[in-house]
Design goal:
Helices cover 31% and strands 27% of the residues. The protein contains 9 helices and 12 strands. Helix 4 crosses helix 5. A 6-stranded mixed sheet has the order 6-7-8-3-9-10, with helices on both faces. Strands 2-1-4-5 form a 4-stranded antiparallel sheet, with helices on one face. The termini are far apart. It is of the alpha/beta class. The longest helix has 14 residues.
Length: 258
């Protein structure tokens, strides 16, 4: 298997955020993590992309101990797009995207023509080439998120870790970005807020609640009306969409039953 997380635990002080979480991702899979706010999704992903060190448990990437791997080496294999998108200095859009080339360089190496071509291509993929010279700090939240996804593409890694990557985007860009990432043929582990997007794009889903992984399976197996009520406490109508062939969910207001 490509990625294996086993018996992961992490606490913020006395508050246990993730408790004995285990997941695995095979090469080429698009795996989603869903669950209510505060269920531990982001904490689990931060441990995977080394944004924090777990209290216990193991993480292996292609059979190697990820927690002991040199950071530059793991950065060559893993690109990350998180929820936060603040950069403390006033870089241009193309400079931010060029940061994705850093794992491929030695200290003080300058950008080559190949680097510039990769950056330009990444911007074109996201429809951002017209903003290349703009200040990153002057962009909207959605534009910033698209720039960070372009940076991940410029990194040329075979594994994307995405923490609700389309949260700040309107629906057209959400679909565009998921179509783009799916088309790259990379391995993906993503926390996804929108269950219909998770159904459309994920091969498998893990469900987290109160810091634990409580369920795993295909979207069709996981996203039933009964499971959605168990996870989120809301009623829903679930059917297979006649055009996509995927599970489609309609959430129902209180007092309306399927």
């Amino acid at each position: 298997m490509f990625l294996q997380v086993k018996d992961l635990r992490y606490s913020y002080g006395e508050t246990e955020a993730v408790e004995q979480a285990s997941i695995q991702v095979d090469r080429g899979e698009f795996v989603g993590i869903i669950g209510p706010n505060g269920s531990g999704k982001s904490t689990l992903l931060k441990a995977v992309y080394r944004g924090l060190v777990p209290d216990r448990g193991s993480i292996t990437l292609e059979g190697e101990d990820l927690l002991r791997m040199p950071y530059k080496r793991s950065a060559l294999q893993m690109a990350v797009v998180g929820q936060e998108h603040e950069i403390p200095f006033d870089f241009s859009v193309e400079e931010v995207v060029a940061m994705g080339r850093a794992p491929h360089k030695r200290l003080f190496d300058i950008d080559t023509k190949k680097d510039r071509d990769i950056v330009r291509h990444a911007l074109e993929c996201l429809g951002m080439e017209g903003l290349a010279k703009r200040s990153y700090l002057q962009l909207s939240g959605g534009e910033k998120q698209r720039v960070l996804i372009a940076r991940a593409i410029a990194q040329e890694s075979g594994f994307f870790v995405l923490d609700e990557p389309t949260n700040h985007l309107d629906i057209s860009y959400q679909l565009q970005i998921f179509d783009l990432i799916k088309g790259l043929g990379v391995t993906v582990l993503a926390a996804i807020h929108d269950l219909n997007l998770a159904s459309l794009y994920c091969d498998r889903l893990y469900v987290m609640k109160e810091g634990r992984v409580i369920m795993e399976g295909t979207p069709e197996e996981v996203l039933t009306a009964q499971n959605i009520y168990r996870i989120y406490g809301v009623q829903s109508s679930v059917e297979i969409h006649r055009l996509t062939g995927k599970t489609s969910i309609t959430f129902l207001p209180e007092g309306v039953s399927a």
